[in-house]
Write a structure and sequence with these properties.
By secondary structure, the protein is an alpha/beta fold. The protein has two domains: about 60 residues; about 220 residues, Winged helix-like DNA-binding domain superfamily/Winged helix DNA-binding domain (Arc Repressor Mutant, subunit A). Helix content is about 45%, strand content about 15%. The strands form three sheets. Strands 4-3-2-5 form a four-stranded mixed beta sheet, with helices on both faces. A hairpin with a 6-residue loop joins strand 2 and strand 3. Helix 2 crosses helix 3. The longest helix has 22 residues. The N and C termini lie far apart (about 40 Å).
Length: about 290
């Protein structure tokens, strides 16, 4: 039986967005499958069993822009324009010695890597709290330690995710704490307010190469996109785009380590560990809130 905690009053926006996402995802998936036919708003609304008016209102509440504007953000042409802009922003930041351009919407995130010894110990002596939470992009499993968040992945089945956590951290003490995770989810998925004074700490385990790639991803700002080659170049491994792609795919902390912001050089969105529909939804949502 799933344990989803009802959000407190201050979390109502996140909970509402999570409920809306299920229908939004179906609409985005339908549009992706039928892009060549360019279905109109009436047809899309009918496919998800809503009136055109209700669908327009629901979509705008979730995305902050109309469905038509949202779809423009997912075109190859728009993706290429965002790539060019993102590269100039990141190059400028590097030129003045900044880790990133520090846009208003960016979360304040720090990343700590476990030592090789801790990695081998499989979490021995570590207490991990976890819970299944709502987010604007569907349900997600969040797990955290005293040193930082160690997992965030989109999921539906809490028992399967608990088994996966146990496999990843075989010697850690797991504690189900959905209330604390719901509070944390609200902080994670509400980046449009004032920048928090206290950083969100992340605790990851991986190879040195993976850690380099994940640190590079953290520096890609909200609303920006980069290519696999860009990430490889920024880690000093220009010839390792394929290996970089594998490290990106192994990212254990969705959203906060924003692997969704990596697309193909052609402007196509490319793959995503948690599904192409969710990647399109996140990128469109970020574009709408960054530029809409």
């Amino acid at each position: 039986m799933e344990n989803l905690v009802a959000a407190p009053n201050e979390q109502s926006d996140t909970a509402s967005a999570a409920r809306d996402y299920e229908r939004i995802a179906r609409a985005i998936e339908f549009l992706g499958r039928n892009a060549a036919d360019q279905p109109d708003l009436t047809e899309v609304a009918r496919r998800i069993h809503l009136s055109e008016h209700h669908f327009q209102r629901l979509f705008t509440r979730w995305a902050g822009v109309s469905p038509k504007r949202f779809l423009q953000y997912l075109t190859v042409e728009h993706a290429k324009a965002r790539l060019a802009e993102s590269r100039s922003v990141l190059d400028l930041a590097a030129g003045v010695g900044l880790s990133g351009p520090g846009r208003l919407h960016d979360l304040f995130v720090t990343l700590e890597a476990m030592t090789p010894g801790e990695f081998r110990d499989g979490g021995r002596g570590l207490a991990i709290r976890y819970g299944l939470c709502e987010s604007p992009f569907g349900r997600c499993l969040i797990a955290t330690t005293a040193r930082g968040i160690c997992a965030l992945r989109f999921a539906e089945d809490e028992s399967m995710e608990r088994a996966a956590l146990r496999a990843e951290w075989p010697h850690a003490a797991l504690q189900h704490d959905p209330v604390k995770m719901a509070d944390l989810a609200h902080r994670i998925f509400a980046p449009l307010g004032p920048r928090p004074a206290r950083p969100l700490a992340l605790l990851v385990k991986g190879t040195n190469f993976q850690i380099q790639v994940w640190r590079a991803l953290i520096r890609v700002p909200f609303g920006s996109v980069v290519t696999y080659g860009d990430v490889a170049s920024r880690t000093g491994h220009d010839k390792a785009a394929r290996a970089t792609g594998r490290a990106i795919g192994a990212n254990p902390i969705a959203w906060l380590i924003p692997c969704h912001r990596v697309i193909r050089e052609s402007g196509a969105l490319g793959g995503y560990r948690w599904g192409p529909t969710r990647k399109a939804a996140i990128l469109g949502w970020e574009a709408a809130h960054g530029f809409g």
